[in-house]
Amino acid sequence: MLSTIQEINKINDDKQIYKDFVNSHSEKTITTKFLVSKHKIGKHYIRRCKAYIRGKQKLPYSHETFPQPQSSASFEKFKKEIDRLISSGEQIVVNRIVKATDTDHETIRCCLCYYAGLYNDLDWIKFK
Question: Model's pTM, two decimal places?
């Protein structure tokens, strides 16, 4: 997860990159291809970085120009499982959340990135 954190730090450290990511949620011209080519951020990190920015900006998890299918439903399952793990004092493990929510690993990683932005705490991204 170090690379995801490095990419997020790159966004946080540069006002123009941050602005482009914020605007990418509402402007159709700021595409993944645009973000990759202009800012040299790995294509496979874009979804996670966008989730982080949505959290930081307090936007709903599914707030995108073209939302991922089932993103709201997946996020609701994730929140329910995270709350259960925290309240029971259990360790937060990505594989455990994947099984409990019947969701893929990348979606769970994006949910964790959203929480990292929402709570301004990159430790949310470090769970294995």
Answer: 0.85
